[in-house]
Write a structure and sequence with these properties.
- This protein is of the alpha/beta class.
- It has 2 domains: 195 residues, 3-Layer(aba) Sandwich (Rossmann fold), CATH 3.40.50.150; 64 residues, Orthogonal Bundle (Helicase, Ruva Protein, domain 3).
- It is 38% helix and 17% strand.
- Strands 4-3-2-5-6-9-7 form a 7-stranded mixed sheet, sandwiched between helices.
- Strand 5, helix 6 and strand 6 form a beta-alpha-beta unit.
- It starts with a helix and ends in a 5-residue tail after the last helix.
- The mean pLDDT is 90.
């Protein structure tokens, strides 16, 4: 197999900062990420950001099928060489953010996501699968370490936020491994971590996903304010009505939204369904 960095040089590839291109090539680390994703011969994998194809190739060695999106068409000659012989890989040179996820899932069937994500699209991409996916079983993504801490945070901590609570409705997130910046080329300014989100583990049902989203947004809108005040501001409620709804949810007066667990926020959202239409 050709050296990935040599192929990049021979193809005259230039890294583009606007697409957050930081590639991995360490074989042991790549195989570990594949393992973190629970990939085996029965798995269909959706990869976002093929890059030079190092992770793509590692996935192809274990998976049944790999569909990999890459926005940078200048990587076509690189991937033609690095993925040579990978018959179970399909590279799609399009912006995944513009894809119709429902149509793609109809074609893929059940699948897992494995990706070394550009930092700037991490949160919106993860949230897209949380909010829209119907057939995704697991997400395994390399993200900025700070973002990893946020995705896996516990209620009441500084890292806990709206994205944490939103993700918890669908499954359980955990940090699988931490990766130093020295593992990438070119080297980013911060360390990274691999996060797995298992949609088949944990999670909970709510009466209305929309009401839950609105409740979470409200709870974290002004972190310094009490949940009571945030309810008044977000839903234009008189103070007594806000207190009545919180009491109905078993929530004490004076608490801040960031202290509530995702399940407590879910219980509140089920009650707020009557005012969130």
């Amino acid at each position: 197999m050709e050296n990935f960095n040599d192929v990049l040089k021979e193809c005259g590839f230039a890294f583009k900062k606007q697409w957050g291109q930081n590639f991995l090539s360490d074989g042991n680390l790549l195989r570990a990420i594949v393992s973190d994703g629970g990939v085996d011969e029965h798995t269909t994998v959706l990869e976002i950001g093929a890059g030079a194809g190092a992770l793509t190739r590692a996935l192809s060695e274990k998976a049944k099928r790999v569909v990999s999106y890459e926005i940078d068409k200048s990587l076509q000659p690189v991937l033609a060489r690095t993925l040579s012989g990978c018959e179970n890989v399909e590279v799609v040179f399009r912006d995944f953010a513009r894809e119709d996820l429902a149509a793609l899932e109809k074609e893929l069937g059940e699948y897992v996501v494995v990706a070394n994500l550009p930092y700037y699209i991490t949160t919106p991409l993860v949230m897209r699968f949380v909010e829209e996916s119907a057939k995704c079983k697991r997400i395994t993504v390399m993200v900025q370490e700070e973002v990893a801490e946020r995705l896996c945070a516990h209620a009441g901590t500084a890292e806990y936020g709206a994205v944490t609570a939103a993700l918890a409705r669908r499954g359980t997130a955990k940090i699988a491994r931490r990766v130093p910046k020295e593992a990438f080329h070119p080297r980013p300014q911060v360390d990274s971590a691999v996060v797995t989100v298992d949609f088949g583990e944990g999670g909970f049902e709510v009466k209305s996903p929309r009401a839950y989203r609105e409740t979470v947004r409200c709870a974290f809108q002004s972190r310094r304010k009490t949940l009571e005040n945030n309810l008044m501001n977000c839903f234009r409620l008189p103070r007594e009505r806000a207190r009545e709804l919180l009491a109905k949810a078993g929530i004490q007066e004076g608490v801040r939204g960031e202290t509530l667990t995702p399940q407590e926020l879910a219980n509140l959202s089920d009650i707020l369904c009557e005012i969130i239409k």
